[in-house]
Amino acid sequence: MTPPIISAATTLTASPFGTPRAVSPVAATQIAFPTVAAAVVPFAVGLLVVLGLIWAVRRGIRARRGEPGPPDPAEQPRLPATGPVREEQRTREPDDDPRA
Predict the structure, then answer these.
(1) Confidence class of residue 56 from pLDDT cuts 50, 70 and 90?
(2) CA 46, 31, 7, 2 torsion: positive or negative?
(3) 26 — phi, psi (to 5°)?
(4) Phi first, then psi: what are they for 11, rounded to 5°?
(5) Is the dihedral of CA 46, 50, 55, 57 positive or negative?
(6) Transmembrane segments in this chain: where (predicted)?
(7) For residues 28 and 44, is the Cβ–Cβ distance under 8 A?
C-alpha cells in the first residue's frame, strides 16, 4: 500500500487511533461552517444581545434621572436634644414575658 500524496495545502493531524492523517484546510473550513447561516446566526444573536444590553443601560440611566436626588444636609437626621439614645440590657424575669 502506497502512502497518499500530500500537497502543500494539507496538514497532518493525529487521529484518535494514533496514525497521522492528511486534512485539507478547505475541508476543515467546510466542516466548521457548512452553510452561511451557521456563521451568520451566532453573529446576529450576539448582536441582538449587545443591543439589548445597551438598551437596558440607557433605560436604567433614564430611570435614575427621574428619581429624586440625595437629601440636603438640612434634611439629614440629627441627634435629639437630650443626647444620643442608649441601649438598655437586662435579663427578663419569667413573669415579665408578655403573654400572647
Answers:
(1) very high
(2) positive
(3) -65, -40
(4) -125, 155
(5) positive
(6) 38-57
(7) no
pLDDT tens-digit series, residues 60-81: 999 999 999 888 988 888 888 8
Amino acid at 69: G
Residue type at 34 in one-letter notation: P
Give the C-alpha separation, 59 to 47, whole Å. Answer: 18
Rounded to whole angstroms, the Cα distance separating 44 from 32 reads: 17
**CA neighbours within 13 Å on the CB side: how many for 34?**
1
Cell of 58: 440607557
Percentages (nearest 5) of helix, strand, coil residues in the chain:
45, 10, 45
Cell numbers at 35, concatenated: 452553510
